[in-house]
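Exercise 3.2. Students should predict the tertiary structure of the chain below and write it as structure tokens, then compare their answer with the key that follows.

Predict this chain's 3D structure.
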Amino acid sequence: MASVSLQDFVCALDPASLPRVLRICSGVYFQGSIYEISGNECSLSTGDLIKVTQVRLQKVVCENPGTGQTIELDPNFQGHFSPLTGPQSYGTLEELVSSVMRSSKQLPIWFMSTHRIDTKARVVPQEQPLMLEAVERHPKNCYARCVLGTETQPVVLHLPLFQKGPFWELETGAPRTMLQALQDPALRDLLLTCPTLPWRTLTLKPQYEIQAIMHLRRTMVRIPSTLEVDVEDVTASSQHVSFIQPLLLSEALARGGPFPLTTEILEVPEGPPIFLSPWMGSLRKGQRLCIYGLAFPSWRVIASTKGRKVPRYFMVSGAYQGKLRRRPREFSTVYDLLSALQPGQPLRVVATKDCEGDEVELPGFASLAVGDRLEVMGPGQAHGAQGGDIDILVCHRLSDQAEEEEEECEEEAEGQEQIVLPLYLSGGFVEDMNDGRRYSLADLTAQFSLPCEVKVVAKDASQPADPLPSFSGLRLEEKIMEPFLVVSLDSEPDKYFEIPPQWLDLTVVEAEEQPRQPAGSPPTVTVEEVTDAFYYRIRKLPASESQSPPPRPPKREGLGGQKKRSSQERNIKSFQVSDLMKTLPEVTKNRSNTYSKISTHKKGPRPTTSQDSDDDEHSYEEVAECFYKTL
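Answer key:
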């Protein structure tokens, strides 16, 4: 097949013959190394193969052949078009008129000339339709009264019958819809008329969008039919050609199967690994995977170890079958206490640090000592000494007998001391609890809020290498909802693991071989250790970012203000001492009397030594004290 322009190929294409394979014979390159504009391909290389799968009509350009004016029509345009056709040509206008008279046709008729017609009134372009209304006889010649209807106001022209052509008579055919007129090959490039439009004659130029598959292109390529390329239909000789269409794991997840699906890795996302598992090293280009479908359940819990210098982080599946026991939670701020308080769940804590209260700054702000037991009641607001409202946490201070005498809780409640703690207060608290029950992970997350501290007391029997029981404690940080795909390596079909497409979106291609059907449902991988970087990346998810930060403490006098105040106090003291020193000479004229007065205030006489002179120099404070007493 000879090469044709892409527009001509699409206009002549029968949609029922799709798909078709085309070779680009004359490529096009858009300046600037841009391959796509507004989602449409704009650069194609010579020799490229494309597989056309669908052609969609975007719009139709309606053009006036006389003036070149255009109107864009929507594909749903409801007007009807009639073709203007002619069976033969005539050498002169007289031959055309004679033929009409012999056929007993009624005027007016439509005709056109394949050459330009020059008149005194104006120039008639070639192939411009003219309407012959009548034949008029003038003293010397006969003229055809014609109307040029290309403008708003028709132009009347008088053409002599000896006007040379060739001329073609135009005949109006049966009305058709716009789509019927475009799909009829006999009407292509013919003049049409539509009573809905302002022009008496027009041509239709459709513009299509071609959807095609290209080699190693992940998404469907969209090509405008007006792209200036020449193509050749090579469908017959390209039956053996296989177009490799990449697929992301997220796309396989979104389309929902069919599973199992055998694939081959084309590309692995760049960046550090997210799991500390041996299978991460096997994810490389060329490795074959079998995808079995969506892992169940879809929620996971992020956990970190306790009691280790270097913590480790894990992602625990909701299908984890190990048994857990709650451990007392630790809180470093009052705000943490408020965050842990849940409706209907009492929260009692023990202070692990001394805390000095400030009744002046916040009424009811009592001091705490190590060992004080508190019951957290709820949030509130109090009026601070600086005039603003302060967010507080209302607590009851419990006596030591509260735990031993539960039957007297009503009498005790009357005598409980209510204290308030500002939310900005930092301190140390540990949960006062006694819960020896063993929970599954699903029950624990359903009954208690996270974060929560636990100890794994029984490992998951389905995971022989379950690492969680070996740790003295775990902190369950948060619960995340994210779909995972169950996957196995083609080289190790019995070893399964789970991949989250959101964070590890591999680019794969479907393999031709049939996937291996597993015997029963694939086992669930319940524990995966994650890297530090991935752990902190998860903690930045919107679910964590939505938590409001703790309140800021009220502004206090800064270090600069304290230094300034201390400097002022020293200046005042030095001023008082200097005034006092001015009076000292009068007092010390009689040192013996002065010392005798001083000695009367002491238990015994002052001994006389060789250092009396030195003692006299350092006795100004005593002299000053005596001076003020004698006033």
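Discussion points: Residues 30-39, 561-565, 571-620, 626-631 have pLDDT under 50 and may be disordered. The longest strand covers residues 49-63.
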